[in-house]
Design goal:
alpha/beta; single chain; Oligo-1,6-glucosidase, domain 2; binds alpha-D-glucopyranose; 8-stranded parallel barrel; Immunoglobulin-like; 5-stranded antiparallel β-sheet; about 650 residues; 25 strands
Length: about 650
């Protein structure tokens, strides 16, 4: 957009830009900068317009974008251009991700590079390597307390190893996702050290206070994220003689984004990782970026403005690189992290679908899909050109962040229902075979979340322990059922390392002083490669799960209806145990896939008459794309065995 004030400012900036930058060929950079400058200027103005040094700050911002553009290598510049030409590339059904810890999966980054063929065997083509940046020796919240944003933790490797991994993935047409922890730093970060040493400039990088006046006001409305291990939101720093805001752990200092220098530094860091070859950057804890007294300091409008500004700047320097929003917040808030509009006021192209994840777990515990159907139906529509990251498990706990009104509509009482879920997954309820642990129990509010590996939460660990073949079979079916849902839902399915072979809880963390108080480590395993080998042994859980997932991934990649163009319609079946939706091929008329999941331990039936009429399905010819079979039907009724899923099509063999 052309607007005189912005354009005049841009001209002044270009006149003053560093000579070193000015002499290079910046044509593509300038066309993008021209396109986005009005938006960048307006956002920067809204956030920092009150500053006297505003124009100098804008110059610095442009210089950071330009310098990182010049540092971007040709291969990445070519990728940017290719993705500009095919801007919906990431909505394709071809992408399947896996999140893993470098050390847990394969000792270190070199090991991950060596493990790429294994991921390829499964069909994974997007690899999210969990935090690898330098962090303290002891507790570091799994690397989410970064002490140096520009270097790799020597325990997992070097910058050169990242380069090798990214090059190896690129050669194979695979994507690399890396974390950038934008909300806070470790208390061992250089900025924190300087703040401690009394440097005012760096104290302003954080929220620090000489006494409890302001912290106490904040505490009136701030929730606690880790109530058991890190209660409260402020930590007294003896050396600095000040309170510092620490919303997560006491050693994670929240960055102060009302200081423009923090924004510019973090943008530079985000661009630095884009230039190391990351295709996607996961922005951690984005809901927390702006703090305001009298609020929960989550999902504030300014947090969204910061993300819009960051996205606009990224699009100038490296438009091919995407953002994932890690915002584990209420269902109505999550979709806002895509931005207000797909082009103007855009934020992150991808967001974790925590709502769907938690709803799936509800269906597992209740053996019905009542809340799942209601919760999915009330999830706000997402933007075009944006997509979900659908997952069953990840490195974090499972939060029961459903909408209370939805719980009531499903016929439950919110407090009692959440209590039931925690009891179920921790094995405290009736005959539950689950082996999870409560996480983040807060006695003041009664809240709790759940830790535990997928296999242990669905009862595989218990069944293997007692040698109960029937229940082993059941647990394997539930694991496949859950994955069939995230593969078909619309969005990028994100598997979690170890789940592809049914890895159970790993309790070795209890022996490690730095981890023992955080039971999320029970589901951050060290992979035993002897177990991985069992995927080749017919009939083992490893083989059944691995081969099941591999097959699903293969089918997903060739099923155009599974691409994400907001082409899903939920179906009200009248049977509470079933979760049913139709996916439509956006490129071919009348090509639909009917996705059916039975969450019950008994067979269930689905009346196909209305569905057939509404969607023009020839339901006499339905075939399951996954198994290749035609499922049992009695007249108009489809029969779905216990914990079974179908991906049904009437299109004949593809
Ligand atoms: C994110 C991470 C989580 C971490 C927190 C604080 O939520 O996923 O593991 O504890 O941020 O960095």
């Amino acid at each position: 957009m052309y607007e005189q004030v912005s354009h005049a400012l841009l001209n002044r900036i270009l006149d003053r830009i560093k000579p070193g930058i000015a002499k290079h060929d910046l044509r593509h950079f300038y066309t993008r900068l021209g396109g986005n400058f009005y938006a960048i200027h307006s956002l920067f103005q809204q956030l920092y317009g009150h500053r006297e040094d505003f124009e100098t700050l804008m110059l610095r911002l442009v210089e950071v974008m330009a310098a990182q553009y010049l540092a971007r290598d040709d291969e990445l510049l070519a990728l940017d251009a290719a993705r500009e030409n095919d801007h919906n590339w990431f909505l394709s059904q071809e992408w399947v991700g896996m999140a893993l810890y470098a050390d847990g999966f394969a000792r270190d980054l070199k090991g991950v590079t060596q493990g790429v063929p294994y991921l390829q065997e499964l069909g994974v083509n997007m690899v999210h390597v969990m935090p690898i940046l330098e962090c303290p020796q002891g507790a570091s919240d799994g690397g989410y307390a970064v002490s140096n944003f520009r270097n790799v933790d020597p325990r997992v490797g070097t910058l050169a190893d990242v380069g090798e991994l990214s090059a190896s993935l690129r050669r194979r047409g695979m994507l690399l996702t890396l974390d950038v922890v934008v909300n806070h730093t470790s208390d061992e970060h250089e900025w924190a050290a300087k703040a401690r040493a009394g440097e005012r400039k760096y104290q302003d990088y954080y929220y620090t206070f000489p006494n409890r006046d302001i912290p106490d006001m904040f505490e009136e409305t701030l929730p606690e994220i880790f109530p058991e291990t890190s209660p409260g939101n402020f930590t007294w720093d003896e050396a600095m003689q000040r309170w510092v805001m620490t919303v997560f752990n006491s050693y994670q200092w929240d960055l102060n984004y009302s200081n423009p220098s923090v924004f510019i530094e973090m943008l530079d860091i985000v661009l630095f990782w884009a230039n190391r070859g990351a295709d996607i950057l996961r922005l951690d804890a984005v809901a927390f970026l702006w703090k305001k007294i009298g609020t929960t300091s989550q999902n504030e409008r300014e947090a969204h403005l910061i993300l819009q500004l960051m996205k606009d700047c990224m699009q100038v320097t490296c438009p091919g690189v995407l953002f994932i929003a890690e915002a584990i917040v209420a269902p109505v808030e999550v979709t806002k992290y895509f931005g207000e509009d797909a082009i103007v006021a855009k934020e992150c192209e991808i967001a974790y679908n925590a709502t769907f994840m938690a709803l799936l777990w509800d269906a597992v515990a209740t053996k019905n899909a009542k809340l799942l159907n209601i919760g999915v139906a009330s999830q706000p529509l997402k933007l075009d050109r944006a997509t979900w990251l659908n997952y069953v498990r990840c490195h974090d706990d499972i939060g029961l962040g459903f909408d209370d009104a939805d719980i009531v509509r499903a016929g439950y009482q919110p407090y009692a229902h959440r209590r039931f879920l925690v009891d179920w997954f921790t094995g405290a309820y009736g005959d539950s075979p689950a082996r999870g642990q409560p996480f983040g129990r807060n006695d003041k509010t009664g809240d709790a979340r759940i830790s535990g590996s997928l296999a242990s939460l669905v009862g595989l660990e218990t069944a293997i322990g007692s040698g109960d073949l029937e229940h082993i079979d059941e647990a394997v079916r539930v694991i496949l059922l859950l994955h069939s849902m995230i593969m078909a839902y619309g969005g990028i399915p994100l598997l979690y390392y170890g789940d592809e072979i049914g890895t159970v809880n790993d309790c070795t963390y209890l022996q490690d002083e730095a981890k023992s108080r955080d039971n999320r480590w029970m589901h951050r395993p060290r992979i035993q490669w002897a177990d991985v080998e069992k995927r080749r042994q017919h009939g083992t859980p490893q083989q059944r799960i691995f081969d099941g997932l591999r097959k699903m991934i293969g089918v997903r990649k060739t099923t155009a209806a599974f691409a994400d163009f907001n082409n899903r319609e939920l179906i009200d079946t009248g049977n509470d145990h079933l979760f049913v939706f139709v996916r439509t091929n956006p490129e071919r008329f009348n090509d639909h896939v009917l996705v059916v999941g039975n969450f019950d331990a008994n067979p269930q039936s689905l009346d196909l008459k209305d569905i057939g009429t509404r969607w023009g399905f020839d339901y006499g010819r339905l075939r399951d794309l996954y198994s290749g079979e035609s499922p049992a039907q009695f007249k108009d009724q489809l029969v779905i065995p216990p914990y079974r899923f179908y991906w049904l099509s009437d299109q004949g063999t593809r």
